[in-house]
Amino acid sequence: MNDSYISSPVGVLTILCGVGAFFFLLEERTKWKLFNYFPPLIFIYALPAVMSNTGILTRTSPVYDWLSSTVLPMFLIIMLLKVDVASTVKIMGRGIFVMLFGTAGVVLGAPIAFLLVKNRLPEDIWKAFGTLAGSWIGGTGNMAAVSEGLNTSGQGFGLAVLGDNLVYIIWLPILLGSKSFAKFFNRFTRVDEKRIRMLEMSQTQKGPQQSVKMRHFLYLLVLGFVCTWAAEIFSGKLPELKPVLTASAWKILLITTMGLLLSLTPARRIPASHELAMALVYIFVANMGAKADVSGLAGSAGWFILACYLWIAVHGAFCVLGAYLLRVDVHSTAIASAANIGGVASAPVVASHHNKKLVPVSILMALLGYAIGNYGALLTAWLCYILSG
Fold it and tell me: What's residue 195's pLDDT?
């Protein structure tokens, strides 16, 4: 018998959608500076968690299973349609490799930080490190996908969300402030001023803007359902390497690969794909909060946050190393880091502050993070798992 006030599937889905809609409406209407430091994501996760842990909202519902099995792979497919690897490499050049250095810093920084704190945290905390790596390489959608692929506990996902946001409020000002050290940094990295001028003159090619029609949503839903169905069939037939490479993890990797292949086809020109995908992402984040048991969160939070700050320091060092070896300017380096750690939401903010002409390429770079986020995060989880024994 379910003693929660809200337990019907329709009621649960209403809450999950309503929480996301409310906080984005609040952000838009109020313009509160609070959201500059604590984006809606953390509230969209936290409120359902509070509701489910106080008995208002059920923690077990068929809605949650449906969101995990169907909606999650669907939004991954839709989200990846806009990735344009060729254009990103062409425009950003060596800046792309600085981003990949930053990605390597995320992958290798995790086991370093994990080693220092693992004895203070639960045994399966390696899953939380893999989950957070999904966000720090790609974005929120990757974090949600990897969490599902690893079967991360609600507590682990909560720690990942908390670590993501508490690092973000420190790291973003550092990336913005790095503009003040441009001359020193560019001398240190021996950057060629001609490269900066070429980057500023580069333009992203945009096709004609299509108005959104009803049929576009049908196209996106069909692509999402077809790929999800195919991934379900094939993921169960592939060999498992537990506990990291399970059928769920295979499903995420297959979906990611199919999404990238579709991005090479005319499907990438379907409008509103990114907007629809992100709406589904935030519903799924609310879903993760509703399933979470946060009773043990407080005892683990301090050590996990400490690990996150050590981890981000390794990422930063790798970005600087990449910039030095490749002779890349501070603007591209800051954008590369923002594309990893903050994704599509933060990279344009950092680019606009450094040089408004770089905003279009910053979005391309952040979208590239979507493409590699799931692969890199599962590798991160595997490295941390090896060290957990």
Answer: 64
Tell me if 281 sits within 8 A of 140, measured CB to CB: yes
**121 located within any domain:** yes
Contact 346, 372 (CB under 8 A): no
Q: What angle do CA 340, 362, 112 make, to 5 degrees?
A: 15
Residue 1 pLDDT > 50, yes or no?
A: no
Three-state DSSP state, 207: coil
CA-based end-to-end distance of the chain: 39
Q: How far apart are CA 347 and CA 363, in angstroms?
A: 6
Q: How far apart are CA 35 and CA 367, in angstroms?
A: 23
- Give the helix/strand (H/E) hosting 233: helix 214-235
pLDDT digits (tens, 9 = 90+) for 287-343: 988 988 777 666 788 999 999 999 999 999 999 999 999 999 898 899 999 999 988
Longest dimension (CA), the chain: 70
56 pLDDT above the threshold of 70: yes
Residue 237 burial (10 A CB sphere; 0-12, 13-18, 19+): exposed
Mean pLDDT, range 200-226, rounded to an integer = 80
- 58: in domain: no
Q: Give the total number of structural domains in the chain.
A: 1
Give the single-character DSSP code of 57: B
pLDDT tens for 125-145 read 999 999 999 999 998 889 999
Quick count: other Cβ atoms within 10 Å of Cβ 354? 24
Is residue 18 in a domain?
no
In a domain, 99, yes or no: yes
Domain residue limits at 127 = 68-203+213-284+294-388
Q: How far is CA 228 from CA 19, 221, 233, 256, 276, in A?
A: 26, 10, 9, 11, 16
Residue type, 70: T
- Reply yes or no on whether the pLDDT at 204 is more than 80: no
Give how far the C-alpha of residue 325 lies from the chain's centroid of Cα atoms, to the nearest Å.
27
131 Cβ neighbours under 8 A, 6+ residues apart: 143, 146, 147, 150, 152, 156, 157, 160, 377, 381
Separation of alpha carbons 199 and 244, rounded Å: 40
